[in-house]
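Two quick folds needed for the group meeting slides. Do the first one here.
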Amino acid sequence: MISVKEAKNIVLNSPQDFGVEEIPFIKSVGRILKEKIVADRDFPPFNRVSMDGIAIDFQSFKNGQRSFKIEGIQAAGSEQITLNNSANCIEVMTGAVLPNKANTVIRYEDVSTENGIATINIETVCDRQNVHQKGKDGKIGDLLIEENTIISAAEIGVLATVGKSLVKVAKQPKVMIVSTGDELVGVDEIPLEHQIRRSNVFTLVSLLERLHISSETAHITDDKPILKSKIEAYLQEYDVLLFSGAVSKGKYDFLPEVFDELGVEKLFHKVTQRPGKPFFYGKTSGCNIFGFPGNPISTFVNCLAYFYPWYYKSVGVETKEETAILNADATFKPNLTYFLQVKLESKFGHLVAFPISGNGSGDLASLVKTDAFIQLPNDKTEFKKGESFPIIRYR
């Protein structure tokens, strides 16, 4: 067996390049940007009016003038007009170009208008107030979005602003999720007393959807020739295979020997952790294989602890470790890294973890009551309230 740290290092040292594709920008939320986005012009591209009101030459106000004849209207989206007489004003709309020879905007709330004359009713006016200066947010050629950014709604707005109707993003891996075991039946079936419904495969589907990765699913019975035949085809067709079950020491846990017979390079099998110790990881020239133990919590934590970081490394996204403070003492005696389920709360600017007792790695329902796993190291058995440890969120 190897340590959690060693296992994670091996996984992270085996990234896979899925390539790049160009897609409509509006479909790119959650995808990984694979180009730098620069300003195609100044932002804003003109001196922009930021309040409905009147535009004046500030010098006239400074000289004591308070009433201004309205010379015209500058609407948003219309070509720039000119203030012909510095003693006059132009009505302006939010988003409009600031009229030529005007430099200051007074909002309508501070003005009274009668018979074509606008009178300013406040004593304090600042030069260039309520004007969003050309280029203040960015100059032409400025870098607006870094490559390898995860695209959110904020980036979508910028992409639209610079005219990027098509955007380059990392291709997503082609993934097959496989469950094994004769005891498993479909979700819509009534299980016999010795059977259970398939659940792990759908948990994995959902965990991948959080990464905007589509996946296919299959179920294979505990029959070695059938396992071997189907997996041989999957290895040629998919970038990633995720398995749930059949990697431990049971008589029907055929996967490790099937992988060996099919030429899969075993990088490790079994990690000093709980839950999820029988975890298998290997690869071929074109496919990465994650063999998760069949217990629900084991599958869940291993996907988060290993597949997620591997995916982010493969697509060039840097991630930061998050920690939380234990709110209660915890004890764990085996010499294993322990992924303890916790409820998270924010208190006085700190993230606090409340340990939640479950009924082992088969207690799928316990996930509903918790938010994360806190990773307790294997170099001690007592973990004190107030100590900080890394966490893996799933909410």
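Then this one, please, same format:
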Amino acid sequence: MLQLNLFNSPTSLIETQKLPANKKLSTNIFTNNYPIHRWYNFIAGFSPEFVKFCIQEAKLNSDDDIVIDPFSGLGTTLVEANFQNFQSIGFEAHPFFYDISQAKLFPLSDIQQVKYLENLLLSIQSYTGSFAEIWSKDALKFLTKLVSEENLGLLASCLEIENVIPQEHKSLFRLILSKVLEKTSLAQTDGIYKAPTTLKKSISFNDSVSIVCQQICEDIEDLQDNFTPKAKLNFGSSENMKSVENESCSICITSPPYLNNFDFAEMTRMELYFWRYAGSWREITEKVRRRLIVNTTTAPTDLKRNQELFSSELSTNLKLKYLDCIIENLINERKIRPGKKDYYLLIYPYFAQMQNVIRELYRILRSGSNLHLIVSDAALYGVYIPTHEILSQLMIENGFNIINIENMRTRGERWILKKRTGSNKLGEYHIHAKRI
């Protein structure tokens, strides 16, 4: 048995678990054992153990070195950098992830402040007006499938008082209420998406508030001086990280969107509607998907259709070796497959945008710095796409040496379906590169 005391955090917060021999752990299966990380977890995130492994292996000097994560998500890299007393910089283009991360990166230090929020939420009376005054027609239609009228009435009242919450408490207020929203929901998360037809047992509003706030109070009380906020999180795409100085960062630890039609907007539709980031499917596309790397068929049509531009940004060698053949096979498969999904339109945009990020990383990383990237291969319509190999080639073309490509795990059985012929090859890969 191995003690998971990887943050030098109080052992009362860390359950004893058996770890596999490979302690890098690509997935976040133990994240709920870690203070702050567990406040809001992301089903597709990578593990705190992986971040710690990469930082310690690099033997950085905490006074001078900066950790960068261009796809920050819910802040795993930046939160762990705080635990390790390093400066860090993140970029996140998803507005909900960005807002929730603030509460984890800059947590309140006084449990009385959390108690204030808890007592305020527990004193809420159900909203007496029309829900149509708060949410759009589309949002309300979706939310009422997921949350009972009783709980939705209490949640609606919480939205109405957000403007009286002190500014320094607002990010934690959003985190707490988002967790409560999840716990009170009647709908199960089916894989990665909310499934209104798949029911789970919900928890009452008051019980949910108490459970969430108790966990946060435990962490704040026990952390003491083991967490030093030194992070800077930017809202926007990492294709242009102009706010970061040339050769100022010492290591990159990240996991970009996978090219497998995983829709980060769809998997957060409940939260996007609830917090009114968007009021319709169209607004979700324009206000959220448009900011993200193109990796799903639900991306804005104009981005997918701009094939000539994206193609012109990629090398002839890359297209001849990998991309053109993949696109041709996807076009052929589309002709005979039900649904007629336009997967072939994702290939040029995804890799061209990822090349922009890689070029920015070359600019901001110091010579000899490590780049650690976790990504998966794909099998769209059964056409195998070695994403890890293609991204490695892009790194080589843009100033990086590849040190190692490691298959960290085989992806689960749910990926082995008839429509994904060849998907038994799928895995998650750790690409370790160095800036020349």
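Slide caption for protein two: The radius of gyration is 22 Å.
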